[in-house]
Write a structure and sequence with these properties.
Order of helices and strands: EHHHEHHEEEEEEEEE
Shape: globular
Number of domains: 2
Radius of gyration: 16 Å
Oligomer: single chain
Helix content: 10-25%
Strand content: 25-35%
CATH architecture of the largest domain: Sandwich
Distance between the termini: 22 Å
CATH superfamily of the largest domain: Jelly Rolls
Number of strands: 11
Number of helices: 5
Largest sheet: 6 strands, antiparallel
Structural class: alpha+beta
């Protein structure tokens, strides 16, 4: 188990998504200890997240949500709404209409479209502040993904292979391979990526 090292700073609003995570866990009739056993994340850490005292890294939140049967995309965009409210999607999106899937501070994953139920892909505008990291434990999901670094540099690890991507470099791989992204550099890194299907 790897609890606190997988944290990011708690959200500035002091609450974040803790209550939403707690409601989702209770809807699955799981105790904190049961969810901890399933996800491999300690129960004190899950309790801290639910109370808004800590914000998990992308990798640890993904492990928790996988056990609850929910993707990061669905969790942050509220895709538990009735299907009839999600059938039609806009074609165009202003910058302030993108859905934040991370802490929005050190790490930002802004998704194009609020509800991806039934969609074939997801598109992300990613921003990694200096020191940002998806977490020490690589994660995986059933998809393919690719992206282009449009600003700065990014360190990517895919299936144990580490590569530094410069501005203009790109990647495309099977997301079932364990992967991790981080920015150990002094400048912000921006990536535009796509995941198909949207299982992230």
């Amino acid at each position: 188990m790897s609890p606190l090292p997988e944290t990011q700073p708690a959200p500035e609003d002091g609450q974040g998504f803790g209550p939403q995570l707690r409601a989702l866990r209770l809807s699955r009739k799981l105790s904190i200890r049961q969810l901890a056993e399933l996800s491999g994340v300690t129960h004190p850490f899950i309790s801290m997240v639910e109370r808004g005292r800590s914000s998990p890294s992308v990798s640890s939140l993904k492990r928790i949500l996988d056990c609850l049967g929910v993707t990061l995309s669905d969790f942050f965009s509220g895709s538990h709404e009735p299907a009839e409210r999600r059938e039609s999607r806009p074609i165009f999106y202003r910058a302030d209409e993108l859905v934040e899937l991370a802490d929005g501070n050190s790490l930002s994953y802004r998704q194009v479209g609020a509800h991806l139920h039934g969609a074939a892909m997801m598109i992300l505008h990613e921003r990694y502040a200096p020191g940002a990291d998806t977490g020490p434990d690589p994660y995986r999901h059933e998809a393919e993904e690719g992206g282009v670094v449009v600003e700065g540099r990014l360190e990517m690890t895919v299936d144990g292979e580490v590569r530094i991507l410069e501005t203009g470099d790109a990647y495309y791989f099977d997301s079932r391979l364990p992967h991790r992204m981080r920015n150990p550099f002094e400048d912000v890194c921006v990536v535009v990526s796509a995941v198909s299907p949207p299982t992230f």
